[in-house]
Amino acid sequence: MTSSTESGQPVVTCQFLGASGTVTGSKYLLNIDGRNVLVDAGMFQGEKRWRLKNWDNFIPPARKITDILVTHAHADHVAYIPALVKQGFRGRIWATRGTIELAEIVLRDAGHLQLQDAKFAKRGGYSKHEEPLPLFTPDDVEVALSYFVPVDFDEDVDLDGFTARWVRAGHILGSASIHLDIAGMTVLFSGDLGRDEPPLLIPRSAPPHADWVIMESTYGDREHETPEPAHETMAKAIRETAERGGKVLMPAFAIDRTEAVLHQIVMMIREGRIPSLPVFVDSPMGLKALDVYRDFADSELREDIDVDDFTGIPQLTEARTQDASKRINHFKHSCIIVTSSGMLEGGRALHHLERLLPDEKNCVIITGYQAQGTRGRKLIDGAKNLKMHGWYVPVRAQVVQDREFSAHAGQRELVRWVAQTQPEGGQPHAVFLTHGEPLAAEALYDQIDEQLGWNVAIPQYGEKVALSPSPDERLADD
Question: Is there a contact between 452 and 414 (Cβ–Cβ < 8 Å)?
């Protein structure tokens, strides 16, 4: 352990080990008087230069991390946890009850995909290794799940030397911002922030005041579209595809996006905006998450939302088994297939893409943010073919993007959120912008600087900053 400052304030540093220069791989390493605490532990996705970092040995050694604090259950925030377990992590993992339920689904699916991808790589011969190995195994996942400890929203949790509070973020079920109080110095991690008015969830809470703020900037360079009628891009694509006898594929993030997509389909059928087509939900992970949303309806969903508002589809088929998934391939009529993964990086979506992309009658509706380097991003950027399982598949199907589904706050919403973090008697010492591509982070930097006049920084990958003592104390020490 290193000693505290002369004022008694603990020595605290924060190192940005993910979501810096990219929107994936969220990891923030806090060192509090020599104790290592990790906020989020996500996998890198998208560009190869980032994905390769998943295979780096974690520094410090995983066994020296005492606690992991989790904001929410998306893979880019939790899916690296089993890799840390494989490397020796044996500490505690703190998260809300909803996050734990969803993380169990996400991590078990990730463990399965790791084994599956290693097998595909060996069978297809497109790995440079003779025996491709998974990053972690299902056994590592089960060990990781045993370390989770549930917390409640808006209650201080004593973590042996500092307290943590999880505050509702409205991004997905269970999602939170995490507020730390370290001997009177406060640090706030935004996690992923939801919209002011999310379609299904209780809206996010006002953030606590903080001396230091680490916040996402995914949509820092844009506002969300709010056309009338809502989601007409999606409705028009479904109508046109049905008229030409094609099938609609809607890749959706298994957590929250599947529910939001189903909600819109229900609303459009009720309003007569689209025909009542058969709808297949072909995502074991998405269906398990749907069950969690049902279970947490009373505590997590808005008062005006009923479970039937996202499951009440007349011809709904839940493809929970592999055989049920295969039967979709033989369905001869127009239909809607909702499947994962949302960025087309794995899962059953790839098998449907291989079958549907070459036919111009079909349509792919992209429903979420697509990180640089992902297949989803390549599709919306006009790719003529996509490589999947070692093969190039031609893109002849119609590709459209519905931009209204985002579960992330837009630029104005982000600025309003961070403005509320101002502590009494001043402003935060600094706001660090993460979880955004460079242009998005820079645009949000400009808005915070222009509107609030605050000290803002965009940390680089691996950069370490001191969070204590305060700037005034550092000047006095000098």
Answer: no
pLDDT per residue over 143-196, tens digit each?
999 999 999 999 999 999 999 999 999 999 999 999 999 999 999 999 999 999
With tokens 């998306």, the residue in question is: 74
Buried b (16+ CB within 10 A) or exposed e, 385-396: ebebeeeebebe
Q: Give tens-digit pLDDT for 94-152.
A: 999 999 999 999 999 899 888 877 776 655 555 455 556 899 999 999 999 999 999 99
- ∠ at Cα 416 (455, 95), nearest 5°? 90
**Closest Cα to residue 394, out of 405, 403, 409, 384?**
384
Question: Distance between CA atoms of 265 and 267, rounded to whole angstroms?
Answer: 5
Please name which of 246, 213, 193 lies closest in space to residue 77, comparing C-alpha atoms: 193
Pairing of strands 92-96, 65-69: parallel
Tokens 């706050």 found at: 409
Could you say which DSSP state residue 405 is in?
G
Q: What's the farthest any 2 CA atoms get from each other in the chain? A: 75
User: How far is residue 444 from each of residues 220, 414, 449, 450, measured CA to CA in Å?
Assistant: 5, 8, 8, 10
Q: Which domains are delineated in the chain? A: 12-222+407-477 (3.60.15.10), 232-405 (3.40.50.10890)
DSSP for 77-108, written as a single string: HHTTHHHHHHTT--SEEEEEHHHHHHHHHHHH
